[in-house]
Amino acid sequence: MQKILMFVIVLFLAACQQADVPEPAAPTPQAVEVAKSEPQVDPNETDAERLSRILEAQPDAVQARYDHRHPRETLEFFGVEPGMTVVEALPGGGWYTRILLPYLGAEGRLIGANYALEMWPLFPFGTEAFMVEMRRWPEQFQAQADQWCANDCASTDTFWLGSMPERMVGTADVVTFIRALHNLARFNEEHGYLDAALADAFRALKSGGTFGVVQHWARDDMPDDWADGSNGYLKKDFVIARAEAAGFEFVAESDVNTNPDDQPSTDEAVWRLPPSLRLPEDAENPDALRAEYEAIGESHRMTLKFRKP
Question: What is the pTM of this model?
């Protein structure tokens, strides 16, 4: 019965992802694809060679997004190296998790940081049935990690943003928020979730540690009430200002995840694009519109690096 419930939850989440907020999802160990066989490891390989080996071993569904998500360039820009302790905000379905676990290696540590439990019911799909499964996320995260990485893997831990345990304070070398800030921002005015998450990111880092952000990027000329996170996009000045208010120093930006073809109107949201491809219900020619969105590719994203003094 439990397996049936989890399968129903997976199908329900898939529908919700098309309907409103595609990225967050309750992780489910049954809904994973096993990585390809790992090649023989050379004990003298460089960090770059290690990352290449791990990226080449990922399932085809993960590799299909490399041209849009640029994991090598992104992780290198943030300075992620084997043996580090990394906090990954909103690991969700584990796209980056399954790369980080073997890359950090047995001397490393990967800490998953999920949205606050109290935040999830604010989404349309945040039903009690969904919450029953979401409350099991810490155990599910470990189960996923065990499936995705079998040898030379980082140890794992978890916490809910806004409730970081004291044992994690000052332990992280890098904290990443990859496509995770917009939902925190959309609920921040009323609930303060963005402020709490940034405070946790700051406290988690060692002095000199890196806070890395990849976020759907709103043009400066877009209305502020459109670029408040509810459509997936945030303005760069807003992200920098909030990070600096949390105590971070802005270090640099990279254009590695930019996509100038993504030019949304105020009637459009980020989830019209791949991999979600949410189409308007009244689209006159959905096939043509889907082809148009697929041609654009994934969203235009800022990639920002901050430092904890």
Answer: 0.89
